[in-house]
């Protein structure tokens, strides 16, 4: 077994479930999360990279998961914008109940736009700081703070007050704004 195969084996064996949970929070579906992790593993380990450290490999895979998720959302949004030009709408669309009696966090996360959802997952699931999130998403610190502020507001409207959500970082709430 080569060195990169050992790293891949150890990463999947030791951190595989954590990677799937991470991807599931982004996608909202465990099967899609598993597919997303698989795609990220293929992307990271099939391009001839010599990843010898499982910690570094996990970081590469997490970044690939995030990139693939955001790219897929953009692709889907573009397709949705032009789909009507190629196909007709189904007459049998199911318009079930618009809301449920009880919302859980995962369902509430699905209501957020992908960038906001990514910021929330990186902040509360990965426990990253605002500068770390900004670096990972190639955004400014202020943009990340704004995304977190908007996301928390949307989540609170669905779930009620979120304890400690506004003490994430100093100045998460823009100056002059009261909650």
From TrEMBL:
CDD domains, alphabetized: Sigma70_r4 (cd06171)
GO function terms (MF aspect): DNA binding; sigma factor activity
Gene3D superfamilies assigned to the protein according to its UniProt record, in alphabetical order: 1.10.1740.10, Winged helix-like DNA-binding domain superfamily/Winged helix DNA-binding domain (1.10.10.10)
Organism, scientific name: Cellulomonas xylanilytica
Domain of life according to the entry: Bacteria
Domain RNA polymerase sigma factor 70 region 4 type: 103-152
Coiled coil segments of this chain: none
SUPFAM superfamilies tied to this protein: Sigma2 domain of RNA polymerase sigma factors (SSF88946), Sigma3 and sigma4 domains of RNA polymerase sigma factors (SSF88659)
GO BP of this protein: DNA-templated transcription initiation
Lineage, highest ranks first: Bacteria, Bacillati, Actinomycetota, Actinomycetes, Micrococcales
Recorded family membership: Belongs to the sigma-70 factor family. ECF subfamily.
Protein name: RNA polymerase subunit sigma-24
PANTHER family to which the protein is assigned, alphabetical: ECF RNA POLYMERASE SIGMA FACTOR SIGM, RNA POLYMERASE ECF-TYPE SIGMA FACTO
Residue intervals of the RNA polymerase sigma-70 region domain: 12-78
UniProtKB keywords: DNA-binding, Sigma factor, Transcription, Transcription regulation
């Amino acid at each position: 077994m080569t060195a990169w195969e050992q790293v891949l084996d150890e990463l999947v064996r030791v951190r595989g479930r954590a990677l799937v949970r991470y991807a599931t929070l982004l996608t909202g579906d465990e099967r899609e999360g598993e597919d997303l992790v698989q795609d990220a593993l293929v992307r990271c380990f099939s391009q001839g990279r010599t990843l010898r450290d499982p910690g570094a490999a996990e970081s590469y895979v997490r970044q690939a998961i995030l990139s693939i998720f955001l790219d897929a959302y953009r692709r889907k949004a573009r397709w949705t914008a032009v789909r009507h030009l190629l196909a007709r709408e189904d007459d049998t669309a199911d318009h079930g109940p618009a809301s449920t009696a009880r919302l859980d966090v995962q369902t509430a996360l699905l209501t957020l736009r992908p960038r906001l959802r990514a910021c929330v997952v990186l902040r509360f699931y990965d426990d990253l700081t605002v500068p770390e999130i900004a670096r990972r998403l190639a955004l400014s610190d202020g943009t990340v703070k704004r995304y977190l502020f908007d996301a928390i507001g949307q989540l609170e409207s669905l779930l009620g007050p979120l304890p400690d959500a506004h003490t994430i970082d100093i100045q998460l709430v823009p100056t002059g704004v009261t909650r």
